[in-house]
Amino acid sequence: MPQVKIITQLFGVEDSHRLPVYERHGGYQAIRKVLSGMSPEAVIEEVKKSRLRGLGGAGFPTGLKWSFVPKDSQRPKYVVVNADEGEPGTFKDRYIMMNVPHNLLEGIMIAAYAIGAHTAYIYLRGEYVHPRRRLEQAIAEAYAKGYLGENIFGLGYKLDVYIHVGAGAYICGEETALLESLEGKKGWPRLKPPFPATVGAFGCPTVVNNVETLSYVPHIIQRGAEWFASLGTERSGGARILSVSGHVRRPGIYEVTMSTTLREVIYEHAGGIREGRALKAVIPGGSSSPVLRAEEVDVACCFDALASIGSMAGSGGVIVMDETTCMFDALHNIVQFYAHESCGQCTPCRVGTGWLKRIMDRIGEGRGVPEDVDNLRAIAADMLGRTICPLGDAAAMPVMSFVDKFREEFEQHVREGRCSLRQTVREAVS
Amino acid sequence: MPTVTIDGRSIEVEKGTTILEAAKQIGIDIPHYCYHPGLRIAGSCRMCLVEIEGVPKLQIACYTPVTDGMVVHTQSEKVKEARRAVLEFLLVDHPLDCPVCDQAGECYLQIYYMQHGLHPSRVREDKLKRAKMKVLSEHIILDQERCILCSRCVRFTEEVTKSYELGIFHRGDRSVVDLYPGIQLHNRYQGNLADICPVGALTDRQFRFRTRVWYLEHAKSVCPGCSRGCNVFVDYNVRRGYKAGGRRIVRLRPRPNPWVNKYWMCDDGRYGFTWIEALDRILAPRRAEGGQLREISWSEAIRHAAQWITEAAREKRLAVLLSPKMTNEELYTADRLFRSLGARMIGYWAEPSSPGYEDEILIRGDKNPNTAGAHWIVGRASGIPQEDHLARLAEAMEAGQVDTAVIFLHDVEGAKAGERVLRALQRVERLIYLGTNWNRTATLSKLVFPATAFVEQDGTFTNFEGRVQRFWRAVEPLGQARPILSILRELAVACSVEPLPEDPEEVFALLALEHPFFSGMDYDRLGERGMRGQLEAPVEVRVK
Q: Which residues of B touch A355 (CB under 8 A)?
């Protein structure tokens, strides 16, 4: 399948981040349609039919999530946008907010209307200084035109949007940690249930959606759920934006339909492996997704296809590694990241991430012992499924998959106390 | 009401009961660290993971409510494996300094490792270094290396004392429990932090290194420090007394009672037991001779006292000052004895507390354990408001109507009318004192009897809410001290009056027959958690 241009259709258009440009290209039509004739239930039904799934990583059906918000609650409801984009290898939300912030705002408006929220928060990754300016400008433009505020579009709905800037913790991308942080507390994930749909921000019903997920909503309303669903696979509707990085000729973002295979993404859209080298491994959905070997890339990038081969579509951060990549080094990097970012709340993740890192550090220093390889995998397995939030799994899955699929490289590091691949590469280069 | 099956045993529990609590009800102990019944659920230690049929992942028993028909396994291979893994994680950076750790013996890392771990170590890494011997206050000291970050202490300062001194700082395996910058612990319940810490991270500076806990024996008791009557354990060491400089009582700690003190006790009560083995304990009967109080034998002391009391009572010149620090049984026996002898007046008096001393948690302004008991047994019958008893006594003494006085436990010094009473007491020729420790009132006396402390006898106190609570003897009386009931019985015999029993349980049975407030009670019914009396209104010393 070729690339598609849905969210990305305005990317590259001059001043695509400005309201007039967005509107000239058909923007803010969906929200007008919603406010002037659709019931909230109809909006939720449309999103359900589109088979749109959460594109922040979990893949939860968006319409279903919205339908969990209690209709009869007397408490205020909130839409919270997860713009904390922290998953290593993922950078699509940044491009969306930079290029089409009004697309996101329109998505927020529709979601707010669908669940009956009059306040929305954008929880923005702290490092995203430039996207923040763009969002602030977009919000100001929308208020100035009456597209946000007391009576949006003059159609009788009230909505305020605020930006809340995070302080640089990966864990705050986990939705309940994000809510804690939004409330001004330490970003520690909550025990679930209750889920945010019933007890979310400030104890009120809340929908937390990723930037990209919400950005698809206006297009679904405009062009119909059937159109969106038909682009995708049986259970994953439409398209998504992949962030492709690593050893490809053209790293960047690619908006593709859900049925597009990783091989197409790597070899067609991203131009293949740089310098004509051979593909060695792919991380298909951000650093927490289990790694794939080169021969496993004939798989659609939808949630179900990747899950069926033991990996996950996650946040769509495709990290491509060629034959010169040391898999020990690659995992070491990931393990260091999770040891740094574990929040420390629950035991398996707090201790496990640090322990894994220290073992990897020791192997890297040439002081590995043969049991280390088995221990790495066993420690990761001890963390899996036993933590409060998915960070424990996110840290464990790469370790297990790297060791399972590239065991020989780990054994070589332990055996020889150094990286033979790096040596080979260095000799080849010189 | 849902019915749950845990390890093959079914139980019907109230809706909302968690798996952990339901299991506890049928005697199944699911290991846990962060769970504490008096604190909010944290769910972070992951030690209580259990298997629920039909649920793919293990679930934490402390947080998961039971549903009807739920089938739970706490001993399956999957569960045991998870427990082992969590224990292994907790021990990765633990210093394993049990031989020098004061928690050894009551440390849940040790206990659970022996029950659920026993795995060989896979840890080759250097342990992370953290702060050791960090003084948090005059009572509590922190060892961050031993800490398992269960957050019980943090939640205690947030939820119980609402004093917010502690937090968990940093992230991942760098996380530590610590004080917020620039402060020390300043709540009045700090000792509980050492109690609830399941490991040796927070220890009690007064208790640590005084004895190994496996030498301790425990008696159920009631704190006599104020009118709340917190249920406590008295931990005492009579086997290795030489290890603690001869002191037997090493620690008081709360004994849970949902109606009185929940799981806690205050620091005043916890650390306030040192008088029991202080050097000023009265150890033998003494009589004033030639300006000095000389030691005499018990029989001699009883003989003198009986003679003085009989003579004075005959001429209506006897006054008796009872104390709300006495037990219900002692008050009853003393009241009966001196009334039958014909005392001119029988009063009691309690030191009023300073305003603002009490709090919303446990601490009461009234520092007497049995003001309510004194009211129902002595005060109500006398018809005199309790704050007037002391003044009446002083008046009687000043007027020369009294030449013999028996004072129980009090030191009247410091009372509002104290100086006046002390002056009056100096004029009383025959002043008899029964008490535990020397004080100005005792030294003025002509005859002094050593009484036992609460840990050296059985009895009951009535708290400010009218709850009558038993306490049990822990150790032998110090020196020649005797229980007041025993002294009163001997006095009765020597005065040729029908003596009451010296067994508190028998006395209590008589008391319950006579005083409607206590009707229907006996020692068996009081049990370990006490019973509310037939109460009209709360009774407490008014705050002056």
A: 89, 92, 123, 125, 173
